Amino acid sequence: MSKLTFDQFTKKIFIKVPKEKLYWCWGTSEGIASWFLSEAIYTAGGKQRKPDEKIQAGDDYIWRWHNWDGQETGKVLEANGTDYLEISFANSKVSVSLEDHDNAVLVILKQHEIPTDDDSKLNIHHGCSNGWTFWLANLKAYLEHGILLNETEFDLRNIPLSGFEFVNM
Questions:
Q1: What angle, 0 to 180 degrees and rounded to 10, lies between the N-to-C axes of helices 19-27 and 127-145?
Q2: CB 134 within 8 Å of CB 128
Q3: Cβ atoms within 10 Å, residue 145
Q4: Which of 26, 28, 94, 116 has a C-alpha 20 to 30 A away from that of 48?
Q5: Predicted TM-score (pTM) of this structure
Q6: Cα pseudo-dihedral 58, 163, 34, 109, rounded to 10
Q7: What is the pLDDT of residues 26-85, one digit of tens each?
Q8: Could you report the per-residue pLDDT of 79-134, keeping only the tens digit for each?
Q9: What CA–CA distance (Å, rounded) separates 29 from 50?
Q10: Bridge pairing between strands 104-112 and 92-101
Q11: What pairs with residue 112 in β-bridges?
Q12: What is the CATH number of domain 8-165?
């Protein structure tokens, strides 16, 4: 990407853990619920995957967060089991690539094919871009320091605009 546009964005962060641990954090329901979600359910052919089982292309998913009553449903589009996965997400696609660099792994998250109507610019591009920035920092804090930064103690669901104002939603 040579210029900023509303139909995509990229977020990157170095995290000092083995690539296998990072892939577990993204590519299993147990892993992704450890730092990001309150619950992740992956199914293949109507059968639910085990919590530590790696996701595969074609899987369907249901994601639920702390402090949000809704859920996201979608499909795993690609998952190579080691360093790349892509899902459908929020009327767009999200890919996660993992690259070894010295004593760290570079996590590259790309959200792309975002619609460019005004609602999508606000809620998907702006909202998800801010959200992923926090969640990638949360992943680093969790893996490198053993702490979670997301809010699980206070119920933010009844606060107007909480998803846009709280940095640790």
A1: 130
A2: no
A3: 9
A4: 94
A5: 0.95
A6: 50
A7: 999 999 999 999 999 999 999 999 999 999 999 999 999 999 888 999 999 999 999 999
A8: 999 999 999 999 999 999 999 999 999 999 999 999 999 999 999 999 999 999 99
A9: 8
A10: antiparallel
A11: 8, 93
A12: 3.30.530.20
